[in-house]
Amino acid sequence: MRERIAADLARARERSRLLTDAVDDHDLVRQHSKLMSPLVWDLAHVGNQEELWLVRDVGGREPVRADIDELYDAFKHARADRPQLPLLGPAEARRYVGEVRTKVLDVLDRVPLEGRRLVENGFAFGMVVQHEQQHDETMLATHQLRVGAPVLDAPPPPPGGPVGPDEVLVPGGPFTMGTSTEAWALDNERPAHQAVTDPFFIDTTPVTNGAYLEFVADGGYDDPRWWSEAGWAHVRKAGLVAPRFWERQGDRWYRTAFGVTAPLDPRQPVVHVCFHEAAAYAKWAGKRLPTEVEWEKAARFDPATGRSRRYPWGDEEPTERHANLGQRHLSPAPVGAYPAGASPLGVHQLIGDVWEWTSSDFHGYTGFEVFPYAEYSQVFFGPEYKVLRGGSFGSDQAAVRATFRNWDYPIRRQIFAGFRCARDAKREELT
Ligand SMILES: [Fe+2]
């Protein structure tokens, strides 16, 4: 276990380094969007959380830099205000995170991984790994918002392939949702409990750029019939006409990703749409968004055994054959690119590619217990956040699984979010 933790910590740091070394000091300290922190804030914040949990709490050691805790407390300063803070500069931030990591590796060598819930199965280390990877995904989103010559590079995703029918029927009845056994699952994924659905259809793949373009071309953004009241108010006020980073030149559409503008790939899942856009498309298509319960059932339920799997393909950890994860590529992969990652019912690309908006508000499951602190998820419970599932091409495998829950405001578009549709099964479709 210690080896796995050390490898996961190293992989996260390798990625943080790549994302911060890719740009110069000026780009590290400036704010690329009001929605985001300066990259140098994310870097030192990652180190500060690691220090708080692993050096001080788990390790019981003296603080490395108690004086900066307040600066890097995400609850104390809004992202828009962070550039004005007396932050550590790039060189200082790099030195700080390195010093913390050296101490953490020493703690990892010495501390017993049992006897206290926080360290059982390496939980606190897993939490810190996931935290760094989540900030790496946030930093990747900052890169997407950055204006300038491209600085990131990665091979293109694998080609698409056949996916079978457009939608599959998920049988009604109970299944096990959430987990009580996944070692690094966060408090909001717990506990395992029984959830029940009616039979429903879910799209075999996320909605593609090509399908979404039909909605745009059909005047979807100008037609209040497809939008909720809040969605229509937002689309008007914000002046939305297409997904973020799309641009029309003549009669062709282009998409800009990480500084590179290219013709829209009609087979790739649409990305950078907000919840309201996803819900409007679904209504236009005669469907709806899946609930969070439906999404998890489609992702985990194996009708042959009645069991819920860790991932759509089974219980094995993701590999590059299963899913587009870990910033291995800089875009979602065309549909059908991961046949080995399909669920038993034949649903593709549930994990990786794009986060998928669901219709559900973010709440604790029945039996929810805060662990290890309320600010992890409990303070976000409520109707203002919608749940997203499945992770994106920018999510690391340590920070996503079929039980993993993400949440954001329904107007957010800078995250790597798309969606798939679902619909109720009609009685005559069940025989
Ligand atoms: Fe954080």
UniProtKB/TrEMBL annotation:
Residues at which gamma-L-glutamyl-L-cysteine binds: 79-82, 408, 412
One of the record's GO molecular function terms: iron ion binding
Catalysis performed (reactions): gamma-L-glutamyl-L-cysteine + hercynine + O2 = gamma-L-glutamyl-hercynylcysteine S-oxide + H2O
Ligand binding (Fe cation): 45, 131, 135
Enzyme type, top EC level: oxidoreductase
Enzyme Commission code: 1.14.99.50
Pathway the protein takes part in: Amino-acid biosynthesis; ergothioneine biosynthesis
Start and end residues of each Sulfatase-modifying factor enzyme-like domain: 165-423
Cofactor: Fe(2+)
One Pfam family hit: DinB_2
Domain DinB-like: 9-139
Assigned keywords, A-Z: Iron, Metal-binding, Monooxygenase, Oxidoreductase
Family as reported in the entry's similarity comment: Belongs to the EgtB family.
Function: Catalyzes the oxidative sulfurization of hercynine (N-alpha,N-alpha,N-alpha-trimethyl-L-histidine) into hercynyl-gamma-L-glutamyl-L-cysteine sulfoxide, a step in the biosynthesis pathway of ergothioneine.
Protein name: Hercynine oxygenase
Gene name of the encoded protein: egtB
